[in-house]
Structure prediction request, 318 residues.
Amino acid sequence: MENSIQLVEGSTSKKVFWSALGTGIVVLALLLVSFGISGVAYAVPIAGVGDFYVEFDKLEGNGYTFFPKMGETSSEDSAPQGTNLIENLTIDHLQLYKDFKVGKQWIRVKITASKPVQITGLQHDAGLIEADAKFENLALKENHSEDWQKQFRQTSSKITLEHAKLKTHYLFQKTINMNGMRLTVEKINK
Amino acid sequence: MKFTKWRKSRPFWGSLMTLLSGLMISWVPLNLYLSTFLPGSIAIIGLLFGGLLTLIGVVALFFPNASKILGIFSIFLSILSVIGALGGFLFGTIFGIIGGALLMAWRLAPVKVNVPPPTDLEKSAHTF
Prediction:
Protein backbone atom coordinates (compact mmCIF):
# COMPACT_ATOMS: atom_id res chain seq x y z
CA MET A 1 0.00 0.00 0.00
CA GLU A 2 1.28 3.57 -0.88
CA ASN A 3 2.25 5.33 2.31
CA SER A 4 3.18 8.70 0.84
CA ILE A 5 1.44 11.57 -0.90
CA GLN A 6 2.88 13.78 -3.65
CA LEU A 7 3.56 17.49 -2.96
CA VAL A 8 5.47 20.00 -5.05
CA GLU A 9 8.07 22.39 -3.74
CA GLY A 10 10.59 24.76 -5.27
CA SER A 11 14.01 23.26 -5.71
CA THR A 12 17.16 24.19 -7.57
CA SER A 13 18.63 21.93 -10.21
CA LYS A 14 22.37 21.94 -9.56
CA LYS A 15 23.20 20.92 -13.11
CA VAL A 16 21.27 23.83 -14.65
CA PHE A 17 22.64 26.26 -12.06
CA TRP A 18 26.28 25.45 -12.69
CA SER A 19 25.95 25.40 -16.46
CA ALA A 20 24.11 28.75 -16.48
CA LEU A 21 26.70 30.26 -14.11
CA GLY A 22 29.56 28.89 -16.21
CA THR A 23 28.07 30.24 -19.44
CA GLY A 24 27.53 33.67 -17.85
CA ILE A 25 31.10 33.89 -16.58
CA VAL A 26 32.57 32.74 -19.91
CA VAL A 27 30.57 35.39 -21.80
CA LEU A 28 31.62 38.05 -19.28
CA ALA A 29 35.26 37.02 -19.65
CA LEU A 30 34.97 37.21 -23.44
CA LEU A 31 33.52 40.72 -23.19
CA LEU A 32 36.28 41.89 -20.85
CA VAL A 33 38.98 40.30 -23.02
CA SER A 34 37.58 42.00 -26.12
CA PHE A 35 37.73 45.32 -24.26
CA GLY A 36 41.31 44.54 -23.36
CA ILE A 37 42.23 43.78 -26.96
CA SER A 38 40.59 46.86 -28.48
CA GLY A 39 41.79 49.04 -25.57
CA VAL A 40 38.61 51.10 -25.60
CA ALA A 41 37.73 52.97 -22.44
CA TYR A 42 34.49 54.86 -22.28
CA ALA A 43 33.89 58.37 -20.93
CA VAL A 44 37.21 59.12 -19.29
CA PRO A 45 37.43 62.46 -17.50
CA ILE A 46 40.87 63.29 -16.10
CA ALA A 47 39.59 66.22 -14.09
CA GLY A 48 40.91 67.62 -10.87
CA VAL A 49 44.38 66.39 -11.75
CA GLY A 50 45.19 69.86 -12.96
CA ASP A 51 48.35 71.30 -14.43
CA PHE A 52 49.60 68.27 -16.23
CA TYR A 53 51.44 68.20 -19.51
CA VAL A 54 50.51 66.62 -22.80
CA GLU A 55 53.23 66.13 -25.40
CA PHE A 56 53.04 64.47 -28.78
CA ASP A 57 54.77 64.34 -32.17
CA LYS A 58 51.71 64.83 -34.33
CA LEU A 59 47.98 65.43 -33.96
CA GLU A 60 45.45 65.36 -36.77
CA GLY A 61 41.87 66.28 -35.98
CA ASN A 62 38.59 67.33 -37.54
CA GLY A 63 36.01 69.83 -36.30
CA TYR A 64 38.06 72.16 -34.08
CA THR A 65 36.66 74.94 -31.88
CA PHE A 66 38.53 77.16 -29.46
CA PHE A 67 37.23 79.68 -26.94
CA PRO A 68 38.67 81.36 -23.84
CA LYS A 69 37.41 80.64 -20.33
CA MET A 70 38.21 80.89 -16.65
CA GLY A 71 38.61 77.55 -14.97
CA GLU A 72 39.88 75.64 -11.98
CA THR A 73 43.47 74.44 -11.64
CA SER A 74 45.17 72.50 -8.85
CA SER A 75 46.66 75.72 -7.48
CA GLU A 76 43.92 78.28 -8.18
CA ASP A 77 40.13 78.36 -8.17
CA SER A 78 40.03 80.47 -11.27
CA ALA A 79 42.76 80.87 -13.87
CA PRO A 80 42.57 82.00 -17.50
CA GLN A 81 42.67 79.16 -19.98
CA GLY A 82 41.39 78.10 -23.37
CA THR A 83 38.97 75.33 -24.20
CA ASN A 84 39.73 73.22 -27.25
CA LEU A 85 36.97 71.02 -28.62
CA ILE A 86 37.86 68.47 -31.30
CA GLU A 87 35.31 66.02 -32.70
CA ASN A 88 37.71 63.26 -33.68
CA LEU A 89 41.47 63.05 -33.77
CA THR A 90 44.49 60.81 -34.03
CA ILE A 91 47.67 61.43 -32.03
CA ASP A 92 51.12 59.91 -32.66
CA HIS A 93 53.52 59.28 -29.76
CA LEU A 94 51.30 60.67 -27.02
CA GLN A 95 52.78 61.38 -23.60
CA LEU A 96 50.82 62.62 -20.61
CA TYR A 97 52.61 63.45 -17.40
CA LYS A 98 52.04 65.07 -14.06
CA ASP A 99 54.63 65.90 -11.41
CA PHE A 100 53.75 65.59 -7.75
CA LYS A 101 55.80 66.94 -4.86
CA VAL A 102 55.98 64.25 -2.22
CA GLY A 103 57.96 65.51 0.75
CA LYS A 104 61.19 66.85 -0.76
CA GLN A 105 61.06 64.66 -3.82
CA TRP A 106 59.30 65.00 -7.14
CA ILE A 107 57.47 62.06 -8.58
CA ARG A 108 56.36 61.92 -12.20
CA VAL A 109 53.36 59.83 -13.25
CA LYS A 110 53.60 59.28 -16.98
CA ILE A 111 51.28 57.64 -19.49
CA THR A 112 52.62 56.92 -22.95
CA ALA A 113 51.16 55.24 -26.00
CA SER A 114 53.52 53.69 -28.53
CA LYS A 115 50.86 53.38 -31.23
CA PRO A 116 48.51 56.06 -32.64
CA VAL A 117 45.77 57.07 -30.20
CA GLN A 118 42.24 57.62 -31.51
CA ILE A 119 39.93 59.94 -29.56
CA THR A 120 36.39 61.13 -30.15
CA GLY A 121 34.60 63.97 -28.38
CA LEU A 122 37.66 65.65 -26.86
CA GLN A 123 37.41 68.61 -24.50
CA HIS A 124 40.75 69.99 -23.48
CA ASP A 125 41.30 73.05 -21.25
CA ALA A 126 44.82 74.37 -21.60
CA GLY A 127 46.80 77.20 -20.06
CA LEU A 128 49.59 77.04 -22.64
CA ILE A 129 49.89 75.53 -26.11
CA GLU A 130 53.23 75.33 -27.91
CA ALA A 131 53.19 73.64 -31.30
CA ASP A 132 53.73 73.90 -35.04
CA ALA A 133 50.14 74.36 -36.13
CA LYS A 134 48.34 73.99 -39.45
CA PHE A 135 44.67 74.81 -39.95
CA GLU A 136 42.20 74.43 -42.78
CA ASN A 137 39.22 76.78 -43.15
CA LEU A 138 40.34 78.73 -40.13
CA ALA A 139 37.83 81.30 -38.95
CA LEU A 140 38.19 83.78 -36.11
CA LYS A 141 34.97 85.39 -35.12
CA GLU A 142 33.71 87.91 -32.63
CA ASN A 143 30.19 87.62 -31.31
CA HIS A 144 28.15 90.24 -29.55
CA SER A 145 27.38 88.76 -26.14
CA GLU A 146 27.18 89.84 -22.52
CA ASP A 147 29.10 86.69 -21.61
CA TRP A 148 32.77 87.35 -22.38
CA GLN A 149 33.40 83.63 -22.92
CA LYS A 150 31.06 83.73 -25.90
CA GLN A 151 32.56 86.85 -27.47
CA PHE A 152 35.33 85.08 -29.30
CA ARG A 153 35.41 81.82 -31.26
CA GLN A 154 38.07 80.23 -33.38
CA THR A 155 36.96 77.34 -35.58
CA SER A 156 38.57 75.24 -38.28
CA SER A 157 37.50 72.15 -40.17
CA LYS A 158 40.89 70.48 -39.83
CA ILE A 159 43.76 70.96 -37.39
CA THR A 160 47.29 69.56 -37.48
CA LEU A 161 49.72 70.12 -34.62
CA GLU A 162 53.33 68.93 -34.62
CA HIS A 163 55.91 68.73 -31.82
CA ALA A 164 53.41 70.03 -29.30
CA LYS A 165 53.58 70.68 -25.58
CA LEU A 166 50.35 71.60 -23.82
CA LYS A 167 49.88 72.64 -20.22
CA THR A 168 46.55 71.08 -19.44
CA HIS A 169 44.00 71.63 -16.69
CA TYR A 170 41.10 69.48 -17.78
CA LEU A 171 40.77 66.66 -20.26
CA PHE A 172 37.66 64.78 -21.21
CA GLN A 173 37.25 62.14 -23.91
CA LYS A 174 34.04 60.47 -24.94
CA THR A 175 36.00 57.46 -26.17
CA ILE A 176 39.74 56.90 -26.28
CA ASN A 177 41.52 54.03 -27.95
CA MET A 178 45.05 53.64 -26.56
CA ASN A 179 47.02 50.82 -28.07
CA GLY A 180 50.41 50.11 -26.57
CA MET A 181 49.66 52.08 -23.41
CA ARG A 182 52.25 52.25 -20.67
CA LEU A 183 51.97 53.86 -17.24
CA THR A 184 55.14 54.61 -15.27
CA VAL A 185 55.80 56.27 -11.94
CA GLU A 186 59.35 57.53 -11.45
CA LYS A 187 61.43 59.85 -9.33
CA ILE A 188 62.76 62.93 -11.10
CA ASN A 189 65.18 65.74 -10.26
CA LYS A 190 63.77 69.23 -10.43
CA MET B 1 6.52 29.04 9.02
CA LYS B 2 4.16 30.89 6.74
CA PHE B 3 7.12 32.84 5.30
CA THR B 4 9.09 29.63 4.71
CA LYS B 5 6.16 28.19 2.81
CA TRP B 6 5.86 31.38 0.73
CA ARG B 7 9.62 31.40 0.12
CA LYS B 8 9.67 27.79 -1.02
CA SER B 9 6.95 28.35 -3.59
CA ARG B 10 9.06 30.81 -5.57
CA PRO B 11 12.73 31.38 -6.60
CA PHE B 12 13.42 33.51 -3.53
CA TRP B 13 17.23 33.58 -3.44
CA GLY B 14 17.56 34.05 -7.19
CA SER B 15 15.14 37.00 -7.09
CA LEU B 16 16.94 38.54 -4.14
CA MET B 17 20.34 38.27 -5.82
CA THR B 18 19.00 39.76 -9.06
CA LEU B 19 17.36 42.60 -7.15
CA LEU B 20 20.60 43.37 -5.29
CA SER B 21 22.64 43.31 -8.48
CA GLY B 22 20.17 45.69 -10.14
CA LEU B 23 20.54 48.15 -7.27
CA MET B 24 24.35 47.86 -7.32
CA ILE B 25 24.48 48.43 -11.07
CA SER B 26 22.22 51.50 -10.90
CA TRP B 27 24.27 52.96 -8.06
CA VAL B 28 27.30 53.76 -10.25
CA PRO B 29 25.52 55.73 -13.03
CA LEU B 30 23.23 57.35 -10.48
CA ASN B 31 26.25 58.77 -8.68
CA LEU B 32 27.79 59.83 -11.96
CA TYR B 33 24.61 61.72 -12.75
CA LEU B 34 24.27 63.41 -9.40
CA SER B 35 27.89 64.48 -9.07
CA THR B 36 28.80 65.31 -12.67
CA PHE B 37 26.60 66.03 -15.61
CA LEU B 38 28.84 64.36 -18.13
CA PRO B 39 28.34 65.63 -21.65
CA GLY B 40 26.80 63.07 -24.00
CA SER B 41 26.98 60.54 -21.25
CA ILE B 42 26.35 56.85 -21.86
CA ALA B 43 25.62 56.42 -18.15
CA ILE B 44 21.93 56.39 -19.06
CA ILE B 45 22.41 52.88 -20.50
CA GLY B 46 23.74 51.73 -17.15
CA LEU B 47 20.76 53.24 -15.38
CA LEU B 48 18.42 51.42 -17.77
CA PHE B 49 20.16 48.04 -17.25
CA GLY B 50 20.18 48.48 -13.47
CA GLY B 51 16.51 49.42 -13.42
CA LEU B 52 15.53 46.46 -15.62
CA LEU B 53 17.46 44.03 -13.41
CA THR B 54 15.74 45.36 -10.28
CA LEU B 55 12.42 44.93 -12.05
CA ILE B 56 13.26 41.34 -13.04
CA GLY B 57 14.12 40.57 -9.43
CA VAL B 58 10.71 41.78 -8.26
CA VAL B 59 8.81 40.16 -11.13
CA ALA B 60 10.45 36.77 -10.50
CA LEU B 61 9.10 36.81 -6.92
CA PHE B 62 5.51 37.15 -8.10
CA PHE B 63 5.65 35.13 -11.33
CA PRO B 64 7.70 32.08 -10.40
CA ASN B 65 6.56 30.21 -13.50
CA ALA B 66 8.52 32.60 -15.71
CA SER B 67 11.73 32.21 -13.70
CA LYS B 68 13.64 30.43 -16.49
CA ILE B 69 13.27 33.18 -19.08
CA LEU B 70 13.75 35.88 -16.42
CA GLY B 71 17.00 34.16 -15.44
CA ILE B 72 18.27 34.28 -19.02
CA PHE B 73 17.41 37.99 -19.22
CA SER B 74 19.12 38.84 -15.96
CA ILE B 75 22.37 37.08 -16.96
CA PHE B 76 22.32 38.88 -20.31
CA LEU B 77 21.60 42.31 -18.80
CA SER B 78 24.14 42.00 -16.01
CA ILE B 79 26.90 41.15 -18.49
CA LEU B 80 25.95 44.04 -20.78
CA SER B 81 25.87 46.44 -17.83
CA VAL B 82 29.67 46.37 -17.78
CA ILE B 83 29.34 48.92 -20.59
CA GLY B 84 28.13 52.25 -19.24
CA ALA B 85 27.70 51.27 -15.61
CA LEU B 86 30.92 49.31 -14.98
CA GLY B 87 28.56 46.55 -13.84
CA GLY B 88 28.43 48.00 -10.32
CA PHE B 89 32.23 47.70 -10.19
CA LEU B 90 31.78 44.08 -11.39
CA PHE B 91 30.11 43.05 -8.11
CA GLY B 92 26.72 43.81 -9.64
CA THR B 93 27.56 41.71 -12.69
CA ILE B 94 28.73 38.74 -10.62
CA PHE B 95 25.62 38.94 -8.40
CA GLY B 96 23.45 39.23 -11.49
CA ILE B 97 24.99 36.15 -13.12
CA ILE B 98 24.58 34.08 -9.92
CA GLY B 99 21.02 35.37 -9.43
CA GLY B 100 20.16 34.65 -13.06
CA ALA B 101 21.62 31.14 -12.85
CA LEU B 102 19.59 30.49 -9.67
CA LEU B 103 16.44 31.72 -11.41
CA MET B 104 17.12 29.48 -14.40
CA ALA B 105 17.78 26.44 -12.24
CA TRP B 106 14.66 26.87 -10.12
CA ARG B 107 11.75 24.49 -10.73
CA LEU B 108 8.84 22.89 -8.95
CA ALA B 109 9.77 19.34 -8.02
CA PRO B 110 7.76 16.62 -6.28
CA VAL B 111 8.65 15.99 -2.65
CA LYS B 112 7.82 12.81 -0.78
CA VAL B 113 6.15 13.36 2.54
CA ASN B 114 5.75 10.28 4.66
CA VAL B 115 2.41 9.85 6.38
CA PRO B 116 1.93 7.45 9.29
CA PRO B 117 0.76 4.00 8.19
CA PRO B 118 -2.97 3.47 8.58
CA THR B 119 -4.16 1.79 11.75
CA ASP B 120 -5.98 -1.56 11.76
CA LEU B 121 -9.25 0.22 12.28
CA GLU B 122 -8.70 2.36 9.16
CA LYS B 123 -7.65 -0.74 7.20
CA SER B 124 -10.82 -2.53 8.11
CA ALA B 125 -12.79 0.62 7.25
CA HIS B 126 -11.23 0.54 3.75
CA THR B 127 -12.08 -3.12 3.19
CA PHE B 128 -15.74 -2.57 3.81
Observations:
- Strands of chain B lie at 106-114.
- Chain B has a mean pLDDT of 78.
- Residues 12-35 of chain B form the longest helix (24 residues).
- Chain B touches chain A through 40 residues (CB under 8 Å).
